[in-house]
Amino acid sequence: MKLSARKRLLWYVGGALLALLPPLAGLADEPFMVSLASRILIYAIAAVSLDLILGFGAMVSLGHAAFFGAGAYVVGILAFHAFEGVPLASGPIPVSGTNNALVSWPLAVIVSALLATVIGALSLRTSGIHFIMITLAFAQMLFYFFDSLEAYGGDDGLSLWSRNDLAGLDLGDDTTFYYVCLGSLAMFMLICQRLVNSRFGMVIRGCAQNERRMRALGFPTYRYKLLCFAIAGAGAGLAGALIANQTEYVSPGLLHWTRSGELLVMVILGGMGTLIGPVLGAAVLLLGEDLLAIFTEHWQLYLGPLLILVVLTTRRGVYGLLLGRGNDGG
Amino acid sequence: MLLLVEQVLNGLQLGVMLFLMAAGLTLVFGIMRLINLAHGSMYMLGAFVAATVTAASGSFMLGLLAAVAAAALVGLLVELVVLRRLYPRDHLDQVLATFGLILFFNALVQIVWGRQPLFMDVPEALSGSVEMIPGVPYPAFRLAIIATGLTVAGLLYLLIGRTRLGMQIRAAASNRDMAEAVGIDTRMLYSLVFALGAGLAGLAGLMAAPILAVESGMGESILIETFVVIVIGGLGSIRGAFLAALLVGLVDTLGRAFLPTLLRLFLPAATADGAGASLASMGIYILMAAVLLWRPRGLFPAPA
């Protein structure tokens, strides 16, 4: 199979490139590349998680940044309390803040997943354009919630004093942090790959093609889609926890609706309904922004029309182009 | 009590502005099945053109004409070049392509007008205030906005319900193929409806210009609120958009004005202010989620 050979080649080349990036950047004397690459990896996690519902489940959510931001805020708020020494909640069982990644990252994932469960449970009662709009509405609610949360900086956001502690690793070192991001992305993609090829994944993909038929076959489609939505939320929460560490700063801007739009763009640009596509999309968009910004401060002037062109001319994104003609992009 | 009257008027004023935006958006959705995120860009263009022309010529009327014409023209152009190709596509493509348009227009405005916000003066004739109810002076300009909005709503009602063009619009909305079969030039009609919607957005931008800062990106917050309006009202329904716009305007304004005070009855002052402010800014989204859960197709769904 020529196609599968190409696919495998892409995995190997991409994987090797990512693994060797920090030493290569060191050789090229461009250490800044490592932190840009970490950013790309983090957004890639969020984009892959969005693609789970968008590409595989055909649920067009314009509110995915809500889970991204929520994950970031969990890490930010816990770190804030740890630094200030003020307990997060007093009462019979006092809860203190923490700077320990082994506590705050899983917590970020869990909170985002729970949030996604609640929002998904309500949103999935609608479909089509109403689904787009109700996910947007919930994301806006959370945006304004954090925006007016004066205890944690309100619209100014919240600065972290340092990156989290992760089992003795020095996350403050950009190279170490990069590998943690890479490991997280690899782990998440592995989970997603198992997921989409499992029976669960087949049901989700079946729902995307014809939900009524799946229901007729006896699948409780609502529950399947809700679980998928929650898993996607969890992935975005992980990405949020990482971005809070990378920038050492959380702000409502992370939940802004344009951020949800950017995540959608990454998925479409890279190739919807694939796992590598969103990663490529994140890389192309963020690198493109950086590159265009070198030449002009008004890079959006070019990015906008480019985006329209991509939407109008191609359905399979960058990944589809790399794989060449005659494939389903899957 | 007087404060309440004033806030209700403020709510009405926000409501009719939202209606001007929502009318175009809901028509375009109802007829062309297109989600147009770039509608806020027409509003922004209207505001910029109005501020510039008014400042240059000293005439508000000239600014008004220029703003509406510019928004309608740019809308027409965008429809011809990009959006026309998006009608048969699914909503996802429409969201992405029009998202691209937003990026483009925001950058364009920054290049032409710079990053500094512009400010526009209220026209001389409307700069005073009117005491309609004794003891409640209200800015004449805001009253003019309410009057304009209500007039436009009435005209739209007549246009769609009573004229030949309106009949064609309704026909195309209910069945495009059938409308074409009986000889309606739907391509022309679509362009016309789009320009009309863009012009109304430009009008809303003009009216917002003396109240808000005119800056790149100003179209986005009102765009999202407009979506809330048309989703609550029922997509494609002008009547629904009108009622939902007033409802959203009132809920938003009254919530911001009175929720903190109301919560003070139950909570300590500092907590009440914080929670009130945050609840008030979330208010319309909570309203929308509630309406969608109760009636998934909005309050007045257009007959499909």
Short description:
The complex is a heterodimer of chains A (330) and B (304). Chain A is mostly helical and 330 residues long. Helix content of chain A is 72%, strand content 1%.
What does this structure look like?
The complex is a heterodimer of chains A (330) and B (304). Chain A has 330 residues and is mainly alpha-helical. Chain A has twelve helices and two strands. Chain A has helices at 2-27, 32-56, 65-84, 101-123, 129-147, 174-196, 199-216, 221-247, 257-270, 276-295, 300-313, 317-323, and strands at 158-159, 249-250. A two-stranded antiparallel sheet of chain A has the order 1-2. The longest helix of chain A has 27 residues, at 221-247. Chain B has 304 residues and is an all-alpha fold. Chain B has eleven helices and two strands; from the N terminus they run ααααββααααααα. Chain B has a two-stranded antiparallel sheet with strand order 1-2. Chain B is globular, with a radius of gyration of 20 Å. The N and C termini of chain B lie far apart (43 Å). The A-B interface holds A 54, 60, 62, 122, 125-126, 128-130, 132-134, 136-138, 140-141, 144-145, 147-151, 257-258, 261, 264-265, 268, 298-301, 303-308, 311-312 and B 29, 35, 82, 85-86, 89, 91-93, 95-97, 99-108, 110-111, 220, 224, 227-228, 231, 235, 274, 277-278, 281-282, 285-286, 288-289, 292-293, 296-297.
